[in-house]
Each structure stands twice: as C-alpha cells, then as structure tokens.
C-alpha cells in the first residue's frame, strides 16, 4: 500500500495546504505546517541516530583494547599512558575535560574531573560497558557512573564526592564549568551539612534533600546577601501530580509560612525553586520581589522563567521580557544525546519559545494594534553549531521547511519549491522549525530571535558569528520574512551581533564589543505597531514603500540604483493642490499618502521622476473619504499635467461608512407601547435641547411633534457621519484615474485587499500587479453570504484573488510579496519614457544586433516564447497577462536596446477553466479547449487591450502574425468575439508609434485575422512583412479547393494533364477514382501557390520579404529609422509644420536618419542633430 502512495504529490498537497491564507484556513494551514515540521524532525532524528550508532560502534571497538589496558596497576607511568589513551578515546568533544583528568600525584578516585569525564563517556555511550582500573569491578564502576548522574545523586547523603560530581556535571551539561569560576566549587552548608551550596556570580544554589533541609539551610545562604536564591529540592511527591498542583506547592513554599520572615534579607530580588524526583520531569519556578524594599516579603512568579534552570534562564535573558505577559509555548534541547527523565544529560543548546503579549491597559479593554510577538530564546553551549551554516559539498542540509538534502544533488529544492542552505546540524535549523510551529499557531508580528553563545569570546568569535548570521539571513530570508522575524540577536560574551529588519524588507547587521547592559525589550512604538498591523495583513506599511523601491533599485543595479530624491506631497485645501512637506513618517492625518520620487535606474542613471500614491491601511482600515479622495485626485492630476508615470499602491476597504455618533448617543425612541417595547416604535426623536445643539451644525433635520405637552423633534434626515459624500468622492477619483490613463502611464500594485472603489481605481489604472494574498473585490465574502442567506463563500480570495483576477485579465501580473511587486513595476517602467513625449529609454545591449535568429520555428505546435526569446535581446522579454486569453502572448521587450511591445500567437491547444460559482448549487466547473492560432473572445480582447496599453506607453509594436482566423461557433459569437475583434481594429487605427506586422517562418495569416491587422488600417504607422515560407490568404488551401477546385475541375485536369488522356470507359472510371487523392494534393498545392510571400509582395499586401534568420537585424535597424522619422515628424508639427511637408523635409535630413540607424545602439533623438535643427528653422522662416 505504501508503494502505491505518490509521496511527492502528497508533500506538494501538504505545502499547498500550509500556504492557504485567511482565517477560514488557519486550522488547516497550521496542521499542515506541523506535519511538515514533524516530518523533518523525524528525518533528522533518524539520520542522527544512524550517525550516533556508527560512532558508538567505532568507539566500542576502541573500548575493547582500552578495557584491557585499564586493568593495569595505576603507577605513575601507567597513569600518564592512560591519560593519553583516554584523550584519544574521547574523540575531541571530551578532550578538554580529560586534560585535567589525571596527574602523576592524583588517583582517579580523588579526581572529580576524571569522574566528570567518566559520566560524560557514559552518557555518550550508554549502550556500551566501560571499565576503569580505579574501580574494583565492572558493577562498581557502572553503579558509580549511574549514581553520579541521576537526580538522586545530587542529594546523596553517603558520599560528598558523589554529590559534588553530580552537581558539577549538572552545571557542566549547560555550559557552566564550576572549576573555571573562583569559589564556585560545591560545598556543604555550615548549618546543614546535608545541603550542598554553590555560589555562581550573584546566585546561591542550595541542593537540599527535602523542604525541611532547604529551610534549615536558609540562614547560611542569606548571610551572604545574594541577589538570587535557588533551591534545588528532592521532592518525591512530584510523581503523578499535575502542573497546577506542583506550581501551587512551590508558590506556597516561597510565599507561605515555610520561609516566613526568612527572605527579608538585603539585596535578595529573586527566589527560584526547582523540584526534582525520579521518573518525573524537573519543575522550575522563579519568583521576583514585588517591591524594591528588600524588607518586604512579597514575591510573584516570573512566568518567563518557568520550566528552566535559573542559570539557563539567565543565559536566555528572559528577564528582558518584563514588560510583557509571557507564556512559554515551546522548549527544545539538542537531540544529539539520548535523553532520559532521570539523568543529567549534556545539551549543545536549549531553545525556549515565548508568546509575549502587551498587558491590557484596563481590565477588559482591548487595545488596538496590540503588541503580540514571539520571542525565541536560545542558549548555545557548542559554538560550532552556530557556524555549521557554512555548507560543504556532500553534507546534508536542512531546507527552509526543515527537509534534508545534499549539496551534491542537482535539484536542491524543498517540497515547497525553494532552496535553503541552513545546515541540518545548525542551531538555526531548530530555530526555524520552532518558529514555524509557534508563529503558525499564534497571529504575531515583529518576532524576535535571541541566541546566547555561552562561553564565547567577543574579540575572537564576533567576526565568525557575524559571518554565520549573514549567511543565515541570506539563505533563510524568505522564511524569516514569512515568519515575520524583525530581529535576530546573538550574544557573544560581552559583544553582540544584531540583524534588524525594521521595515520587513531587509536585515541590517551591526555588531558591538560592549553590550553588558541587558535592557528590557520595549513595547512597540506607534510606527512599529502600524508595521505589525500591515504584516498581519501580508502587506507593507505605507511609509516603508519607498524603501522597497530603494532596495530593489540597489539590487537591480548595484552602485547606481537608488532613490535620488523623495518628497512627500500633502493636499492644501486652500489651493486644492499638492504641496511639498518634510513631515516625519506616520504623521499623516488622512489615509492616502503621496510622494514625488526621483529614481536612479539603469535607463536613467541621472534620475527619472514618478508620482507615487498609496493607501495607508492602518488609518481607518484604508477606507476612502473626501480627504483621501482629494489627495488621490490631486496626485493623478499632477501626473497628467507633467506627463509623469503614476503608480498607485492599493490597499483599502472601499468608501468609508459611518454614522453620526453624536446623534446616535442623543436620540430617543417613541414606542408604540411603553410597557411592551416588542410592539415596535413610532419614530425616533431628539429633545428640544439636543435638537437645538445638533441642528445648529446642520447635522439633522426633524419634524416638530407635540406629545402630551412635550416637544419631540422626530428625525427625518441625519446629515452627519459618512454617507453619500464618500460616493461622490469615489466617482471623482474614478474619473481622475480614467483621464490619467488616456494621457500618461498609470500602474496599480494591489498589495492588500482592495474593495469597491479601491478595486475600480486599480482596474482603471489598466496595468495591475496583484499580490497573491490581496483580493480585488466589490463586496466582501461575509456580506455576500448575508445577502444569500447561507455560508457560500469562504474567503475574499475565492471571489477576487489572483486565480480569478489573473485568469480574467483584470490583473496583468501576480507576485508572492511586495518586493517582487515593486520589481515588476520597475521592470515595466524600464520600457516607458521618463515622461510623455520623451525619447524611449534605450540601454546598451550586449546582444549583437547583427546576429541570426537561432530558433527555427517547427511546423508542429511549439512554445512561441522560444521564438520571442531568440528574436529579442537576451532576457529582455516581459510577458503580461499570461493566464488570460492564453492563445495570444503579449508583453514588452527590447530590440537592439530599444523598448518595443510584442504580440505573438500560441500554436498549441490550451485549456480554459471556468470556475463554478458556489452561490449556484447546480454550477459546475467548465473546461474548454482552445485551439492554437485562433482568436477566441478572450484572446481577441486581450490583443486589443494590450495594443491600447502599449500605445499609451509610447512604445513601438511588433506583431508576429500567425492566425488562421477567429473562432466563429455559437459559443464564441455569443461571447462577443466579433466585438472584440473590432476592438483590435480600433486599437491599431489609433496607434501613434511604428507598428510592424510580420508573418514568421512557417506562419500563416488567414481571412478575418488578416483583415483586423492589415497595414491599410493605419498606413502612416503600420508596415507589413513576411518571412520566406509564410502563407497568407482568405482560406486555407484545403478550404479553397473544396469550393473552387471541385470534382469536375479535378476530372478536367486529369484529362488535360495525364499523358495519353483518360476516357469515360469502365476501366478509366476506376483509374479516375484511384488518381483522385493525387489530384486533390495537386489542387491543394496549386491553391497554396496563391498564398506565398511572393504573391503578397507582388500584390503589395506586404512591404518586403524578410528571411527569418536575419529578421532581428532588419527590424532592429528599421525600428531605429522609423523612430527617427517619427521624432522628426513630431518636431515639425511642434514647429507649426504640416504633414504634407513630411516627404520633402524628411528627404532633406535623410543623412541624419541613416546616421541614427548606423549607430545601432543608443537613444533615438534626431531632433538634436544640427541638420535637423537647421531644417526646423526653415519652417519658422517659411511662416
């Protein structure tokens, strides 16, 4: 059964489930996320177990020889030899412990370091039998090792040495070497010898075999005035009790009668209680003094430190979470060692995941944009695990979702389709896995990762740590962004490395050598809260949008790309125009923000200007009211006035709705029956006083009614609040957007959900880039469900997501995030002149103009994108609307460095899917096959729209014509194919730049398809060409033969062409029947001879026959010539000349046009040439 399961398909399905967005899919998405992470943990654990088994087998073979040697008497020479052998056996990880394990004047019995080493050897090889000469037999050695490492051994009353060794091992397992710290060795308490005391830094640790022993040892401990007091108590009643009861017992111990009056010692701020028992997990509870006065006994629990040894909590710096209400939602220790409840087990690192929430200001008060974050804290004891992020060939790697792959494999991708270089054995692997689970369960943002590299030295290790963090950020950036991680901080001794991502766009890494102060993590400020709100909506805060542009520009063109100037524009109600402002980010009082931006791009290193206008979704949910409409309308009007491209960043909730809150709070009700209000009401009214106040401001209209000597003002109209004025403003901005599209380049990037007028304005920009999680809708799913009276739609994306808007042509491009959205906008702008009427932005081209087109179109169906990539400059083609009208391909490219629009034809059959509307129970998904080389209603509309867009962008156009005609069936005619075909004619007739129609090699153009793109539609701009082997005619040869070369014609041809002729005898009739297929082929061939490029040229239907191999060179040079002609024509008209003078004047400057063509590269600006200026001057003299 397992063999029948398609594992890759299952993995892909789980990833798709994980990537579902929206509240309705939260449970499904989180379950899928847990499946993925757990699967990778199992894979990783299995791998590590195999590695550990191999390591144990290798060490076992070495132990066999070592055990024989260990039986030799421990004279001085033999002890030296044993020390060397043990050092070798330890295989590196324990060598530092073994270096002091034995000396010439010490035996192993009296050497705690040696016993500590034996314990570590046991823990690493708990399936092997270890023998040492210092024990009389194997059983004694094994018992001693076990006793030294169970929780009970911490309180062993029979052997102080055993207690000391166990305590040292406990601290050593978490990176604390008591031998390296002065006065930190375990020792009995003077007043209670059975209690061991350890002084570490400002903390006293008391190891007590019972609660009573702990209380008895307290005077000795408090006499030293510690800052923190830690009780480690053997508490056998742990077994079988729930966590709540255990916590209550610990709290009673600290705050109850046990320690009454005993904790009033100077300087004591913290009390930690650890309860231990065999067969039960350790329980840790930390309490902090509630008053700065040390004479006050009040203590309250620190939830952030619950569950951790206090020195580990210190290492993770959990006290820095003091401003939050904290809950630990995950604990993880390294898995390279086998763990057991009853043993002290070494760990390479410990990870704690905390959900931190801002406390409510008032009980029951819900704070808007509340600070809610995940803090991941890790204490790492083996610094090499941080440096494992540097990949090496052949080493297993952990991907972004935790999967393991090999560098040597050709396809290093996760089941999610991405690749990551995070090493499987790196602590970062567990960081990502833990964050996946925590962030998936809790809606948080601005999450924080803190790693303390315990025992590291700032001066020695900071450079390596900085490199490791940079590598981690680089390889896992997309995951960190998706998990909304704002900061990755690594403590390195007294130094630190901090990677901050304040805007969600990029991490900035800084390092410092002195960061001894541990400042608490502050609550988010106003700007950060707004960023968090936007991140929760998978969007970007409005004032961070310019930074995205700057980052993308720098990435596209390092050292050149940047924002040269950024000026915010605010609306002046007196002049009703935009004025410059230098206010700080976040001070906007309306939900619409506008900038004039000067971008340094590859095409314009000195800068090009655009108008950038964006919704602020954190202001009234991005809703639009008259103040927002004023800013938007003024921005588009400014773009039209100056001919600048205008980019709209859309994220809104449509027109603003609202009620008059003052009237809402003041109105009264005249009930039909005051004793039974269920009978309804007669009217609502205002008292005389309220009416006098509210009517004076024009907020209400009312009818005066006298009821029982009391005056009621029954409300007829409430004029306050947000109402039809918002709809009026929506109409104004819709008109402004439509007007701007006609006169300049308009683009919209839908970064967040856009509703109603927000969706219309995006569409009216005509060039739409849509974020995958940003629906374009008129009415929300919940509102539609209420209208329909049942739960029909599950999310807004189901109605207006990219799968809908990309498939119907509303959205031109879809992107996974805002960075890719801005990249697409900037790439689109790279084809567009800097302002209306400016020269096309030409760039140096490394792809030679005079090269052959290497792709040879086959006669069978093929991908026409290969044709486009071979014809245009390398990697310059940008396709738009790929999911709509798929029998036509549209986009922009460069030819010899010059931007040009392109329309090509899909030769393969494609499938069109029409989704079923769940609002109709009988609706079903419809699948429709569309043949290649045919215009269908959608592809005809797509062609017309693309041509119109390119015309308004000022681009020349080339059409690779290869159509057999229009689809003319009932469904297509009902789908208005005729109307959309006519739109193509309209678009070409209005085209104001050069248009080339070229039938490529093997292509054909028939019937109505020829008609709608014939050069006679716009003879001033259109030129028609064909390649050798191209075909064109009214019908295909087979169709013409059926009509014009019928059976009688075929028989006549037989009689005329067969040598010796053919008669009407019975034998000749059989011969005619046998020869009929041959003569049909002959007829088809004859008909095809009417469709050749030679015929087209002879009848002047085309201008020339251009071989396919040299077509790139021809059109690149012809394009420069035509652009030069059009630039000169525009200059002539601007000087007052007439179109009748074009032939004469162009002939006078033909040398300039030839020079522009000969240059092959560069901006086409012939009007600046001296000969052209002189020619233009003659126009003024003639006038």
Layout of strands and helices, then pairs:
Blueprint: H1 7-18, H2 26-70, H3 76-89, H4 95-98, H5 112-124, H6 138-147, H7 160-172, E1 187-188, E2 196-200, E3 203-208, H8 211-222, E4 228-234, H9 243-255, E5 270-277, E6 280-289, E7 299-301, H10 310-315, E8 325-333, E9 349-357, E10 372-380, E11 396-398, E12 404-406, E13 422-423, H11 427-441, E14 447-453, H12 458-475, H13 477-482, E15 485-492, E16 495-500, E17 508-512, H14 526-536, H15 545-556, E18 562-572, E19 577-581, E20 592-600, E21 608-615, H16 626-642, E22 646-650, H17 661-666, E23 668-671, E24 681-686, H18 688-696, E25 700-707, E26 710-718, H19 724-743, E27 746-750, E28 754-755, H20 757-764, E29 768-771, E30 776-777, H21 781-788, H22 796-800, H23 802-805, E31 813-815, H24 818-829, H25 864-871, E32 878-880, E33 888-895, E34 898-905, E35 910-914, E36 926-930, E37 934-935, H26 937-952, E38 957-960, E39 965-966, H27 970-974, H28 977-989, E40 995-999, E41 1004-1006, H29 1007-1011, E42 1022-1026, E43 1031-1033, H30 1037-1044, H31 1047-1057, H32 1066-1088, H33 1093-1098, E44 1104-1105, H34 1111-1134, H35 1142-1148, H36 1150-1159, ...
Helix pairs in contact: 1-2, 2-3, 2-11, 5-7, 15-24, 16-19, 19-20, 26-28, 30-32, 31-32, 34-36
């Amino acid at each position: 059964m397992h063999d029948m399961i398609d594992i890759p398909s299952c993995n892909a399905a789980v990833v798709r489930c994980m990537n579902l967005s929206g509240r309705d899919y939260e449970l499904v998405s989180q379950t899928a996320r847990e499946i993925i992470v757990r699967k990778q943990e199992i894979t990783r654990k299995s791998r590590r177990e195999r590695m550990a088994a191999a390591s144990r087998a290798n060490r076992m073979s070495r132990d066999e020889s070592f055990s024989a040697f260990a039986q030799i008497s421990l004279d001085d020479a033999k002890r030296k030899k044993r020390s060397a052998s043990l050092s070798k056996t330890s295989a590196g990880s324990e060598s530092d412990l073994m270096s002091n394990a034995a000396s010439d004047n010490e035996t192993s019995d009296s050497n705690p370091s040696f016993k500590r080493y034996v314990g570590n050897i046991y823990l690493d090889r708990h399936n092997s039998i270890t023998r040492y000469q210092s024990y009389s037999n194997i059983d004694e050695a094994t018992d001693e090792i076990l006793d030294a490492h169970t929780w009970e051994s911490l309180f062993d009353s029979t052997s102080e040495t055993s207690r000391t060794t166990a305590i040292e091992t406990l601290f050593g397992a978490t990176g604390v070497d008591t031998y390296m710290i002065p006065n930190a060795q375990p020792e009995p308490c003077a007043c209670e010898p059975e209690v061991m005391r350890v002084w570490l830094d400002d903390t006293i640790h008391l190891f007590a075999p019972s609660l009573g022993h702990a209380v008895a040892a307290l005077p000795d401990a408090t006499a030293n005035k510690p800052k923190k007091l830690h009780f480690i108590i053997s508490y056998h009643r742990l077994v079988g009790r729930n966590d709540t009861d255990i916590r209550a017992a610990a709290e009673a111990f600290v705050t109850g009668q046990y320690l009454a009056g005993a904790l009033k010692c100077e300087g004591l701020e913290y009390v930690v209680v650890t309860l231990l028992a065999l067969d039960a997990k350790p329980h840790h509870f930390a309490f902090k003094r509630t008053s700065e006065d040390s004479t006050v006994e009040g203590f309250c629990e620190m939830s952030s430190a619950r569950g951790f040894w206090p020195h580990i909590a210190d290492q993770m710096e959990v006290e820095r979470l003091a401003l939050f209400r904290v809950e630990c939602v995950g604990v993880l220790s390294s898995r390279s060692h086998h763990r057991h409840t009853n043993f002290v087990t070494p760990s390479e690192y410990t990870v704690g995941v905390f959900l931190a929430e801002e406390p409510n200001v008032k009980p029951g008060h819900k704070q808007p944009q509340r600070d809610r974050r995940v803090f991941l804290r890790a204490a790492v004891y083996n610094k090499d695990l941080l440096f494992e992020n540097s990949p090496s060939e052949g080493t297993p790697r952990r991907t972004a979702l935790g999967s393991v792959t090999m560098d040597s494999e050709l396809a290093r991708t996760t089941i999610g389709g991405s690749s990551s270089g995070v090493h499987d054995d790196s602590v970062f692997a567990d960081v990502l896995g833990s964050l996946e689970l925590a962030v998936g369960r809790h809606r948080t943002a601005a999450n924080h990762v803190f790693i303390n590299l315990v025992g590291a030295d700032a001066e020695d290790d900071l450079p390596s740590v900085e490199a490791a963090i940079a590598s981690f950020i680089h390889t896992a950036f997309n995951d960190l962004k998706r998990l909304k991680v704002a900061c990755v901080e690594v403590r390195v001794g007294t130094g630190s490395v901090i990677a901050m991502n304040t805007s969600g766009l990029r991490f900035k890494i800084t390092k410092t050598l002195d960061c001894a102060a541990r400042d608490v993590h502050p609550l988010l400020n106003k700007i950060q809260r707004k960023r968090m709100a936007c991140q929760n909506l998978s969007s970007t805060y409005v004032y961070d949008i310019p930074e995205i542009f700057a980052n993308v520009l720098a990435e596209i063109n390092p050292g050149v790309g940047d924002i040269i100037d950024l000026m915010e524009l605010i609306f002046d109600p007196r002049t009703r125009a935009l004025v410059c402002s230098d206010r700080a980010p976040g001070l906007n009082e309306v939900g619409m923000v506008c900038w004039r931006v000067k971008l340094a791009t590859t095409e314009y290193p000195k800068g090009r200007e655009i108008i950038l206008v964006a919704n602020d979704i954190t202001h009234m949910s991005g809703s639009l009211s008259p103040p927002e409409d004023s800013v938007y309308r003024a921005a588009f009007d400014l773009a039209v006035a100056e001919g600048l491209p205008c980019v709209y960043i859309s994220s809104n909730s449509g027109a603003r709705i609202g009620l008059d809150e003052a009237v809402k709070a003041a109105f009264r009700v005249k009930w039909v029956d005051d004793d039974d209000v269920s009978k309804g009401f007669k009217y609502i009214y205002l008292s005389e006083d309220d009416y006098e106040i509210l009517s004076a401001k024009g907020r209400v209209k009312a009818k005066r009614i006298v009821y029982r000597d009391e005056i009621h003002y029954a409300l007829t109209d409430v004029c306050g609040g947000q109402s039809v004025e918002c709809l009026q403003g929506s109409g104004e901005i819709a008109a402004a957007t439509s007007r701007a599209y006609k006169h300049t380049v308009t683009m919209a990037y839908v970064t967040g959900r856009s509703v109603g007028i927000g969706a219309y304005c995006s569409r009216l920009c005509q060039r739409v880039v849509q974020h995958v999680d940003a629906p374009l809708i008129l009415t929300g799913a919940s509102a539609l469900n209420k209208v329909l009276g049942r739960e029909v739609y599950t999310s807004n994306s189901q109605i207006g997501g990219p799968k809908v808007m990309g498939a119907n042509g509303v959205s031109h491009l879809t992107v996974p995030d805002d960075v890719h959205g801005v990249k697409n906008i900037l790439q689109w702008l790279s084809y567009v002149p800097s302002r209306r009427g400016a020269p096309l932005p030409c760039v140096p081209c490394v792809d030679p103009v005079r090269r052959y087109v290497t792709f040879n179109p086959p006669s069978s169906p093929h991908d026409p994108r290969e044709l486009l990539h071979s014809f245009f400059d390398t990697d310059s083609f940008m396709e738009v609307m790929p999911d709509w009208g798929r029998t036509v391909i549209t986009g922009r490219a460069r030819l010899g460095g010059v931007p040009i629009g392109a329309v090509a034809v899909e030769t393969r059959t494609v499938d069109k899917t029409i989704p079923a509307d769940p609002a109709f129970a009988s609706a079903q998904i419809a699948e429709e096959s569309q043949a290649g080389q045919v215009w269908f209603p959608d592809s005809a509309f797509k062609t017309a729209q693309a041509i119109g867009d390119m015309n308004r962008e000022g681009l020349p156009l080339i059409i690779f014509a290869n159509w057999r005609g229009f689809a003319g069936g009932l469904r297509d005619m009902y789908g208005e194919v005729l109307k959309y075909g006519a739109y193509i004619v309209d678009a070409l007739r209005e085209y104001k730049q050069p248009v080339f129609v070229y039938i490529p090699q093997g292509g054909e153009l028939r019937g109505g398809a020829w008609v709608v793109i014939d050069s006679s539609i716009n003879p001033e701009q259109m030129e028609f060409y064909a390649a050798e082997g191209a075909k064109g005619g009214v019908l295909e040869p087979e169709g013409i033969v059926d009509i014009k070369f019928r059976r009688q014609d075929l028989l006549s041809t037989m009689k005329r062409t067969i040598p010796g002729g053919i008669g009407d005898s019975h034998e000749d009739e059989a011969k005619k029947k046998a020869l009929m297929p041959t003569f049909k082929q002959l007829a088809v061939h004859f008909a095809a001879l009417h469709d050749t490029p030679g015929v087209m040229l002879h009848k002047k239907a085309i201008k020339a026959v251009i071989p396919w191999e040299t077509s790139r060179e021809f059109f690149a040079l012809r394009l420069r010539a035509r652009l030069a002609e059009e630039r000169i024509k525009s200059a002539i008209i601007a000087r007052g000349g007439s179109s009748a003078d074009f032939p004469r004047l162009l002939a006078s400057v033909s040398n300039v046009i030839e020079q522009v063509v000969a240059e092959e590269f560069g901006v086409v600006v012939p009007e600046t040439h001296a000969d052209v200026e002189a020619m233009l001057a003659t126009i003024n003299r003639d006038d």
